[in-house]
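--- STAGE predict ---
source: upstream dedup step, 1 unique chain passed
mode: sequence only
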Amino acid sequence: QVQLQESGGGSVQSGGSLKLSCEASGWIYSTYVMGWFRQGIGEQRDGVAQIDKGGYTKYADGVKGRFTISQDREKNTIYLQMNDLKVEDAATYYCGIGRWFGSYGMETWGEGTQVTVSS
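--- STAGE serialize ---
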């Protein structure tokens, strides 16, 4: 069973930056997709950025050019560098791991980390 531990959330002003980390432990699939998803209060969980074991990435349109997902395969860790944060980026950010891209492809979720952006 895989466990995910997120870190790096916090509060910033609009235009600021944050970097999220997610470390996977336990049994890791031979092929996988890991990613960051976010969910506001009363909203559905939407994909932000995802990366597969080979390094292929997918981004939501609203974060392209501002967010960068990366991975350290030796550490089983993915990162999300978030620059030029906007008020609308505020949400709980969840790390997921699964076998396919998309929220329905995720099989395990982290507990989430809060990102707050003030104007």
